[in-house]
């Protein structure tokens, strides 16, 4: 109950988030990390880059996550969806995590204006999340195996890693495997 009350008052309950450091459970903006967050939103909304392209770009220029790891598609997507960057606190979004994992979504989670400073203005955050919803296909991956060149082949022009996919079914029922770059 204490953590719920803190969230309702706009106070941080702890944890690490890129762009901020937590001092006595108070979020303080870290300017160098805040620039990375701003860059992610700028590339996503203004330049129409996808999360994969953004993560590849951040890694290529040497940026790292809060934990010192390379950026992943999920890390970039999580940043875009996190309302902490527009100055809000979100709490209790998942229930029964031990048993339900991702299926234990709480429809009545807490989201309130926080007492911390925002890195991204609300209009930019709302635009980014609107774009993300428009781009979401809702279809899961059709192939869960691996391709031998995944993560090895790069585009000679832009340096983006090539991804593998299966083409449309042929008349004989087989599928052609091919590589494509995502600029």
From TrEMBL:
Task: List each copy of the Recombinase domain by range.
Answer: 17-138
Q: Which InterPro entries does the annotation name?
A: DNA_bind_recomb_sf (IPR038109), DNA_bind_recombinase_dom (IPR011109), SSR_resolvase (IPR050639)
* PROSITE patterns noted in UniProt: RECOMBINASE_DNA_BIND
What's the superkingdom here? Bacteria
Single GO MF annotation? DNA binding
A Pfam family: Recombinase
Protein name per its UniProtKB record: Recombinase
Q: Which organism is it from?
A: Paenibacillus tianmuensis
Q: Where is the organism placed in the taxonomic lineage, from the top?
A: Bacteria, Bacillati, Bacillota, Bacilli, Bacillales
